[in-house]
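Milestone M4 deliverable, item 7.
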Amino acid sequence: MNILFVALLFFLQILTFFSFGLLFFKFIHKNPTSITLTLITGFIFLFVIFGIISIPLILSSQKLSTLTHIFLSIVGILFIISIIICYKDWILLSKNLLQILHKHSYMLVPLFIMCLLLQLSIFNYIDWSADASYYVGKVSTDVYTNTMGHFDPYTGNARTVLDGRRVFASFPEYNAVISQFFHIHPLKQAKLIMPQILALFTCMIYYQLGLLFFRGQAKKADFFVCIILLLDLYSYTTYTNATFLFTRTHEGKSILANIIIPGMFFCFLLLWSKRDIVFSKQLLFIISLSSCIFSSSSMLIVPAGLSAGLLPWILKEKRWKSIPFYFLCVLPNLIICILFLLTTTGFITYPIK
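Output delivered:
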């Protein structure tokens, strides 16, 4: 029964991300043509909304239950709106599913096997690192105390001020919200369900990159995913994204390494190839905005990535009007970085009321 409930919760969150993806495409007046791209976009868009809602509540020392009720109420309303105003897209993508599977043909078998091995590897691995303790302890502590960051997840001691380093990285609170609302143990959401979702979305990002590299040829894109997963498997070190993909999937840094950075690279490829400049900019903006929610490490990684991908493009194509867009994308993480420095030097604290 527990396994069935976990599976149901997994698919419910996937369905929610898909509905938010359709909404995002509706807002930017673009027709969704890819299920995987819609899911990735919806995942990022949902966490932008979650960050906007959660951070003010965290800073004002509200209860976790307050965030749970507000956020899930908004999600429920937006889900219904997605069904109503995007029903044609729901129907169209559902009808095209068999046609899409036919394009993959026999490559679906090795692709399924590689993705399944990835999921099983993540399911069976146990990480005892300090970061692993934080991401599980933070969710568990917040759920069982109905607070958000008021207690040290390592010791359980009450705090007088919020953790300035991680106060804006509210990704653990998402897992806490799901755990509290559905009355499941935080370990099931934080260490079982969410890592499987993140691993699946990583494969989707690889697939989208493969489609760009091989000009929309699905079979070659499938082969590309299999090769990248093999490279990840055999390039496991402390300094590669494979570490976060196979062993630390539940951490916010894993999202940076395996979804945010590849997502930025995907947008840069669209820009450089001049395929869909407007959409790539829109997607790149919400990627940079959502990165703040996942991990404080984004304050350096994302601006560096944006500078490496956008500035050469602006200079080469002489798109001087895109310079404000570059600063707009960098701004969220720049603000987080400044606040972090002010916090570590003692100029700013976030007292718990």
